[in-house]
Amino acid sequence: MTSVKPSNVAYQVMWNRLISVVEEQAQALVRTAFSTSVREAGDLSAGVYDADGRMLAQAVTGTPGHVNAMADAVAHFIRRIGRDNIHEGDVYITNDPWEGTGHLHDITMVTPSFHKGRHVGFFACTAHVVDIGGRGFGADGASVYEEGLYLPIMKFADRGEVDQTLLRIVRGNVREPDQLVGDMYALAACNDIGHRRLSAMMEEFELDDLSGIAEFILDNSHRATLERIAALPRMSAEGSMTVDGFDTPITLKVRLTVAEDHILTDFAGTSGVDPKGINCPLVYAKAYACYALKCAIAPEIPNNAASLAPFRISAPEGTIVNAVHPAPVALRHIIGHFVPDAVYDALDKILPGVVPAEGAGCLCNFQLSLRPRTDAPAPNGARRAEVLIFNSGGAGARPAHDGLNATAFPSGVMTMPVEATEHAGPVVIWRKELRPGSGGAGERRGGLGQFMEVGAREGHEFDFQAMFDRVDHPARGRRGGAAGGATTIGQDDGTPMRGKGKQFVPHGRRVMLGLPGGAGYGAAADRDPALVRRDLARGYIDADAAVRDYGMSAEDVAEVEAAVHEGRWVD
Known about the structure:
By secondary structure, the protein is of the alpha+beta class. It contains 14 helices and 19 strands. The longest helix is centred in the middle third of the chain and has 28 residues, at 177-204. It has a seven-stranded antiparallel beta sheet with strand order 2-1-5-4-3-6-7, sandwiched between helices. A four-stranded mixed beta sheet has the order 8-9-10-11, covered by helices on one side.
């Protein structure tokens, strides 16, 4: 390092620069990825680490599950590869659910960063890939061995030479080899972008290593987080919630204990491992538990190893939030995305008026495995394709604001545009619109879910991999708020469908979806009448709900409806 120690102001500038470096790293992945889930939905993460594997900065673009799980992953890479085997030009890879980010469909790439021949740190990134072989993306597997191709922590490139044998194995085991190999190269490229920007920064600030800036970042982040925790009441509280599960309901139980220098989240009493692939490795449950607490307690403190450290997570092995190998974990996000709502059920008893009501929780994902029709001759041009579609229900209402419509919380993954989805394969999205009445009533209304109508182009049939919850257990309101709308699913001819699992949809049929709404916060009687009129005018609620839930008079309803019909309504 330069002989003159940089000032705190200079270190702060460097910190901000590191955050911009990893954001450019993430955007490079968005621009170069082959999978629509990365390009359009932002299902990825990117970060920079010091030479000891401690995360220093994360990209703004990305999901908490990926970022916070990846925070623990680099230490596994160092241990598995061995420090003596880390060389300039290396790139490492894994999709290990327990040492990566929770399931086989996430590929994590780690690249050591060298400056002037000296190892100074690592860049890491993760992306969800459309296919990894096996049964395909879904909950039907009975063990992780059925869920796809496993890549242990290994070298993707050794001193600049890509392992061609690895690529041949990958290509021979997946349904979309070009997409997957393209994504692997995109992951490696985005780390390289981060490395180049870091080297430029180190040249500019005359740094020989990252030790000084690392200590500045980690010390300040840790101290600031401890200050927030120290201001909380010293107490414990319990929370719980029940969700659909696969065949039987799943209960998450949480006990939060606030100490002077940490918060312990204990999941003892939570349901055991499920026979199907909705189980969650601890690394992923930990990621979302930490995220929930940081959002409520220290949202303005940047995410890094030190700001996460005071949030301690415990869960007995064999519970669904600490599933061990070889449990099936393909849809670990379903349970993981409910962890924040379970944590908030407890935190609301410690910090009333801070956390939101329950929302849709898990992403409303589905994957279509399309193929030429088999009940009659298929037309020329009919083809096979795997299309993964990310969508979201409504977010829960907040103490001071309505819930966001069709917005994924806690994952933050974006809803995929119809155009991008239909470009990825022979899919037709016949309908996609907000679902009126699905937001739970309250002083603050829950966010609306969506209606969707999904089919295939002429000459195709498909398997529909459902990955939904909230069918039997809609989002619960908080502080007197009403529940959100439940998930509905079926074919357009009335054939019922399950919320989870692979289901055949014949040629000409469509899947009709009602995605769940977020719950309300506070009593509906306390809602501002002007907001009720606005919701009615926008079509978020109907006349019956305005009268039934909010006590609006028939005369006021008629006045609003007339103003909308005549074009006199001003929002």
